[in-house]
Amino acid sequence: MTVNNIDNLLHETRRFPPSDEFAEQAVATRELYDAARADREGFWADQAKTLLHWHKPFTQTLDWSNPPFAKWFDDGELNVAYNCLDRHVEAGNGDRIALHWEGEPGDDKSFTYAELTAEVKKAANLLTALGVKQGDRVAIYLPLIPEAVIAMLAVARIGAVHSVVFGGFSAESLRSRIDDAEAVLVITADGGYRKGKAFPLKPTVDKALENDADGNPSTVKNVLVVERTKGDVDWQHGRDLWWHDEIAQVDAEHVAKPFPAENPLFILYTSGTTGKPKGILHTSGGYLTQVAYTHKNVFDLKPETDVYWSTADVGWITGHSYVVYGPLANGATEVIYEGTPDTPHPGRWWEIIQKYKVSILYAAPTAIRTFMKLGRQIPQQFDLSSLRLLGSVGEPINPEAWVWYRDVIGGGTTPVVDTWWQTETGAIMISAMPGVTTLKPGSAQVPVPGVSIDIVDERFRTTEPDQGGLLVVTQPWPSMLRGIWGDDERFVETYWSKFGPTTYFAGDGARYDKDGDIWLMGRVDDVMNVSGHRLSTAEIESSLVSHPMVAEAAVVGASDETTGQAVVAFVITRASQADAAAHEDAANVLRAHVAAQIGAIARPRQIFIVAELPKTRSGKIMRRLLRDVAEGREIGDTTTLADTMVMQTISKSMR
Ligand code: 6R9
Fold first, then answer.
1. Hey, what domains does the chain have and what are their CATH numbers?
2. What is the whole-number distance in angstroms between the Cα of residue 405 and the centre of ligand 1?
3. Cα–Cα nearest to 346, from 317, 386, 374, 305
4. Where is ATP annotated to bind (predicted)?
5. Using the 8-state DSSP alphabet, how is residue 632 labeled?
């Protein structure tokens, strides 16, 4: 063939309207948009009533009298875990599979709704026996094993607050999150499996709980340890307890008590523009309403027949909203997988889809691009005909990857929904509805019914088509963050000050096209997006300068074909690092240092040892110029630099 495919795809203009067959059976129809437009608050009240069970019905939908502090369904009472478990059993669906869990080594286990409910009841009794009460914070540091889901739901069931910390984070990151939330309990495992190896977790917890540099103990009273890898563990008697020993001793019955709609459900830490991660706070009734609503409508869920798989880890917001709370609130059957996509072979994901007959897949563009590079012959070895809908999340999906995803994974027929949202928004905010929207590769397209979005300029005027602007949410939404844990001021300042206290500033750049569809253009602040995970430049910079070798550091997110962005650091060392070999040694030491301090995901792809950094006259590092260098581009406008020669010095020192 002489057709230049790459060129074709770069100018992708194809549109994909829903097939008649799909549209006829679709959960979400045009009426959803009409209903939300006619009465936004009434629409959300209806969703809350029809999707959830309220022990005590609410009479007030939204209290927005003190923005940006919102209260949704405030006088209502519910139990989040009851909504995800018991009520499905009581409705006669106890025998439906809730979870198909697949371990990386190939072990597996399935739980019906009745079985999962029974496990969570015992775990709730165990937490109570350990003294955990409503409002207490519990840190969860687990691999993706069933106990992760069970632990989260057990914490929710007793009205306590979980803080899940991704298993790839370091002891230091874990400790700072434990300290910030003053967690009383850590639930962890001896280890988990990744890339064909057992990796230990318990030693990281032990290290995190040591007295800090000032001699202060942590707030943690107990550590509950799930046995997963059977690796050796150190044991602190009185503090450490085996999950399986303890759970065997508690009562099997547990009655779920109602809690107020605004009872805190979880804290999840995410990177911001400063070095200190923010504890994003979500509450119960509004959050569960919107995650259930979006999971049902965006993914066109038929709980009786679909098998849903979100590949996210519970350490991220996608794992909270679309592995645990959304699917289980809707009574879905879902798959969770502990390991990496290429272990023990590069077709592992496709093998899992074939094995469980997955019909809905929700994954990140980074993964899709990696599979694209490996070639279509790998997925083609498996039967993927069960798939009927594909989703994307975490970063913009380029049209090439979108089309490949639909063609190769979706057999050329499945809709692909690109879903934009954030840890802070709690649930999907912008996405096509697969039975309604004509799909446009590369665009997240339209706000979901009930959500009000705009793209504005610095003066808060809606932008013209094809003019870049700032993405804002102009009306409160049920799953909105309720605050930053312990820091109301930072909450107001970060999200609700740029355009006043009723407009949420998302930190993303975006543009409308001529049809009014929304295209996301990446972060406008110093937050990077590496493989769909948020990292802060400031956090990595402060890790670098904490190393005695480093005098100054600047970090940028450089575009990367596979991971979206990659961490690239520019470092001025204290000692002279004259020759190239010394540079390389220093760079390797520093890469390892960042990985140990923050976690492997933050390890810079490249570190350049330089003599100077480009700064404005007010002393601000000009990351734009460093990004030019990191991406191998011609260096842009340098006229605002204090020292206009500095870029030449940098380019020279990198040669
Ligand atoms: C859910 C999640 C949020 C940031 C967000 C944006 C980027 C997420 C996206 C997307 C373009 C999409 N992002 N989904 N960008 N298209 N469909 O990823 O939450 O980890 O908090 O990241 O991710 O930049 O601001 P979180």
1. 39-340 (3.40.50.12780), 454-485+503-523 (2.30.38.10), 527-653 (3.30.300.30)
2. 19
3. 374
4. 394-396, 418-423, 508, 523, 534
5. T
207-221 core/surface letters (b: 16 or more CB in 10 A; e: else): ebbeeeeeeeebebe
Any atom of ligand 1 within 6 Å of the Cβ of 401: no
Confidence of residue 2 (pLDDT cuts 50, 70, 90): very low
Mean pLDDT of 161-184: 95
DSSP track, 121-145? HHHHHHHHHTT--TT-EEEEE--SS
Q: Which residue puts its alpha carbon closest to atom 18 of ligand 1?
A: 394
Q: For the CA atoms of 214, 215, 216, 221, what is the dihedral angle to 10 degrees?
A: 150
Side chain identity at 534, as an amino acid letter?
A: R
CB atoms within 10 A of CB 516: 9
Atom of ligand 1 minimally distant from the CA of 532: 18
Please give the radius of gyration of the chain, using alpha carbons only, rounded to the nearest integer: 25
- Least confident stretch, 106-115, 329-338, 354-363, 598-607: 598-607
Task: Report helix angle 113-129 to 146-157, nearest 10.
Answer: 60
Q: At 589, is the secondary structure helix, strand, or coil?
A: helix
Residue 523 annotated as binding? Answer: yes
Q: Does the CB atom of residue 52 touch ligand 1 within 6 A?
A: no
Cβ–Cβ under 8 Å, residues 40 and 290: no
- The helix/strand/coil state of 451 is coil
Q: What's the mean pLDDT in 194-214?
A: 96
Its pTM surpasses 0.95: no
- In whole angstroms, give the CA distance from residue 387 to residue 326: 20
* ipTM of predicted assembly, 2 dp: 1.00
Q: What tens digit of pLDDT does each residue of 62-105 get?
A: 999 999 999 999 999 999 999 999 999 999 999 999 999 999 99
> How does residue 11 score in pLDDT terms, banded at 50, 70 and 90?
low
Known binding residue 425? Answer is no
What is the spatial distance between Cα 401 and Cα 380, in angstroms, rounded to a whole number?
Answer: 16
Q: Is the CB of 47 under 6 A from ligand 1?
A: no
520 in contact with ligand 1, CB cutoff 6 A: yes
pLDDT > 90? residue 617:
no
317 lines ligand 1 (CB under 6 A): yes
Confidence (pLDDT) at 10? 53
Q: Is the CB of 479 under 6 A from ligand 1?
A: no
Which of 323, 446, 529, 530 is the pocket-test mutation for ligand 1 (most atoms within 8 Å of CB)? Answer: 529
Q: Which residue has the higher pLDDT, 462 or 545?
A: 462
59 burial via Cβ count (<10 Å: 0-12, 13-18, 19+): exposed
